[in-house]
Amino acid sequence: MRRRVILLGPPGSGKGTIAARLKTEFGFEHFSTGHLLRQEVAKDSAVGRQVGLFLERGELVPDELVLALVESTLAKSRPEQGYLSDGFPRTLVQASAFDAWSGTRGLAIEQVIYCESSEELVLSRITGRRSCVACGHVYHATFVPPKTVGRCDECGGGLAQRADDSEALVRRRFQVYLRETEPLVAYYRAQGNLTVVDASQSLEKIMARIEVMLRQ
Ligand SMILES: [Zn+2]
Questions:
Q1: From the CA of 143, how far away is ligand 1's center (Å)?
Q2: What does the pLDDT read at residue 165?
Q3: Which positions are annotated as active-site residues?
């Protein structure tokens, strides 16, 4: 099974939900750069204070900050576990720097899953989104509700709407995505390891397709 996997797609295309399913069903080591970054903000570390300014404006965090955070996280993990990334890489600079870094460590990407989604679909999904303040697990009021309202199934932590999930910021982030991240689709397609899933399909359909592809 392919175990070094990147999830690509606009914010709100369902990457977090897919990642959570892959983690529980196949034991993937999941890391979300969004969660790693918000953890730094919550800790009010030096990095976190820099990061917070970019998140408040709906702008991308600079490549070198993100790369340092991801590489230090992966360097601590066991290589045979692989990884599942949700939200990284976000720019061509990050993608090519990560290819160089991971290639020399036997951690090269094996599969990129692109969750294709329109801006309107993203909006309708994101306004119902809630995430665990403790572990980062993502729920949706309608599509993926927790067993107990306001409580995380995984760890019992409180669920909150992220401050950057308002409509204006969602639209802004979508534009940033189109400009900065969408070019990665062509980049990975040229490498021959890209699979496209239609994010408007049911989660079960999407998961069935992803499972077949990861076992190829
Ligand atoms: Zn939790």
A1: 18
A2: 75
A3: 15, 90, 129, 162, 173
Instruction: For 19-62, write each residue's pLDDT tens digit.
Output: 989 999 998 888 888 888 888 899 998 888 988 998 888 777 89
Quick check: 109 pLDDT over 90?
yes
Convert the chain into a string of H (helix), E (strand) and C (coil).
CCCEEEEECCCCCCHHHHHHHHHHHHCCCEEEHHHHHHHHHHHCCHHHHHHHHHHHCCCCCCHHHHHHHHHHHHHCCCHHHCEEEECCCCCHHHHHHHHHHHHCCCCCCCEEEEEECCHHHHHHHHCCEEEECCCCCEEECCCECCCCCCECCCCCCEEECCHHHCHHHHHHHHHHHHHHCCHHHHHHHHHCCEEEEECCCCHHHHHHHHHHHHHC
Question: In the chain, where are the structural domains located?
Answer: 4-215
Domain 4-215: CATH superfamily is P-loop containing nucleotide triphosphate hydrolases (3.40.50.300)
Q: What is the pTM of this model?
A: 0.79
Over residues 129-179, the pLDDT tens digits come to 899 999 989 898 877 899 999 999 999 999 998 877 778 888 988 999 999
Cα–ligand 1 centroid distance for 17 (angstroms): 13
Q: Give residue 55 CA to ligand 1 midpoint distance, Å.
A: 22
